[in-house]
# Entry
Amino acid sequence: MYDVKSHLHEVLSQLPQGVRLVAISKYHPNEYIEAAYAEGQRIFGESHEQELRQKHTSLPQDIEWHFIGHLQTNKVKYIAPYVTMIEAVDSLKLLREINKQAERCNRVIKVLLELHIAEEATKYGLTLDACRELLEAGEWRQMQHIQICGLMMMASFVDDQEQIRREMLTARDFYDEVKARYFADDAAFCERSWGMSDDYRIAIETGSTMVRIGTAIFGPRVY
Ligand SMILES: *Cc1c(COP(=O)(O)O)cnc(C)c1O
# Structure
């Protein structure tokens, strides 16, 4: 088996205080997750509903599951009973559905708004203007079963470190703007989720509070 334990500690040793690790376990077997769990890791991220459901059912119940992928509205009901955070909310429609399903479960689900900043056309997420519009419209203020905890983004998948840094700085500036304008009195709005295996060091330098790391802990994914 891949040496999850030492790779996990290698990553953890580089995270300053205030930066939490979401261990991205998609496509990796339960025994890999159990190895990280045995070392104290409790936050794991998955991007497919069925895979998450199987893992949630068979693994320890005190794991905090984050849904990190693109989520179709018709899948929300399956994860609503147990998911801790949905990281990639990119529409009002999805936000409404999460609120509705969380209400049916008598829960509050934490969410992040996903920003589209990367230059690649295929990435999901809200443009900065679309995100401003969603927040300005204010419907979210009435939603009692979601808690907007911050912003999430993926930088472009490129070698150019300066481009990655620019995109993350754009996200951080935008976070500051939104925090001041809509969440100044809301201590729960405090998360900046960026940084993956290849760019988490830049993410830490640009104010990330939550890095999402898979490959650097669990090795290459087998699809
Ligand atoms: C898969 C994935 C990650 C982790 O990527 P690695 O390069 O394996 O660290 C992080 N965030 C999202 C949204 C992902 O889908």
Q: What stands out?
A: The pocket of pyridoxal-5'-phosphate is lined by residues 24, 26, 47, 68-69, 154, 196-198, 212-216 (CB under 6 Å). The first strand starts at residue 20 and ends at 24.
